[in-house]
């Protein structure tokens, strides 16, 4: 690991956690308050016995990052997404069928702030949540570039900056659907992908909560820390080949892309392309022995779990950092682990098509056919 926290922040874990069971949880996203994923996560969280409130955008606000935009209109000028709330309604208000679900006509970061400073203090029996959950997003958010670009993560790091632990979830299924389209069963006889995404997210949050409870309770994460989770495409519409992807510890850097401008000589227009850059993938602060989250998702049916902080200062004089990975175990394992618990509680084993190796703190992904590489040799490579 390349530690990056000063001793003043590396307080013992027992002093850095807050809630046990029956927590107060704020839920948001960047796809809108009426989408299936957020509603299914809301139901799964409440099924664990927690009190949850949704405060999310009235319409799709993807790609806004941490931008804070408050509406300048007191009322909606157009219908909300899926026509759930009609034009002329207040720009902030509850869902017609559930007083714990709120919409606001603003960006994801603004929705978090409206939730913390208006909805919860006025309409809930708590004002400061124990945890903020953002997502599950329709589409993956992998690496440092998308960390800054994604509204899902913008909402999460806004909460972290307000002193509240937060987890951002993103899923590989990119087609948005309304909550009332969720199927009890799919043509394959399985749960709807939105239901599975919601349950996977709730399971990981509950693993964190359960492990913290075992320490005696307290804050769920140290100040300044959050978690980025990326879950692959759920295949339950057609088969069961990927319905319980195991969670794997990862880091943001490693195989991650950043945008580049691609000019079309015929149209005279630009579009974006992807480039893998050392500027994006040099491991500085994270645990450089872990594979990149992009590399984990390239292994198909595996989910990546990366811790992040909102301290963007370069590590100049800090030499101690808490190891938080144990707080998510056994649900979250390692790339070479066996018997990893899948998201629905079944035992699954990550079966990588290649072996990932971080060399000298860099971001080298060895995607060769070296499935037989032993742990001893892997350790030797990591020691280079």
Structure description:
The protein has one domain (13-382): Stationary-phase Survival Protein Sure Homolog, Chain: A, CATH 3.40.1210.10. The radius of gyration is 21 Å and the shape is globular. The protein contains 8 helices and 14 strands. The chain has a 10-stranded mixed sheet with strand order 3-4-2-1-5-6-7-11-8-12, with helices on both faces. By secondary structure, it is of the alpha/beta class. α1 runs parallel beside α5 and α2 crosses α4 (151-161).
Secondary structure category: alpha/beta
- Helix count from the secondary structure assignment: 8
CATH architecture classification name: 3-Layer(aba) Sandwich
From the N-terminal CA to the C-terminal CA, the straight-line distance is 14 Å
Beta-strand level of the residues, as a percent range? Answer: 15-25%
- In CATH, what is the homologous superfamily? Survival protein SurE-like phosphatase/nucleotidase
Average pLDDT, rounded to a whole number, is 85
Number of strands: 14
Q: How many discrete domains?
A: 1
CATH topology: Stationary-phase Survival Protein Sure Homolog, Chain: A
Helical fraction = 10-25%
Q: Mind telling me the C-alpha Rg?
A: 21 Å
Properties at a glance:
disordered N terminus, 384 residues, ten-stranded mixed beta sheet, 8 helices, Stationary-phase Survival Protein Sure Homolog, Chain: A, 20% strand, two-stranded antiparallel sheet, alpha/beta, 22% helix, globular, 14 strands
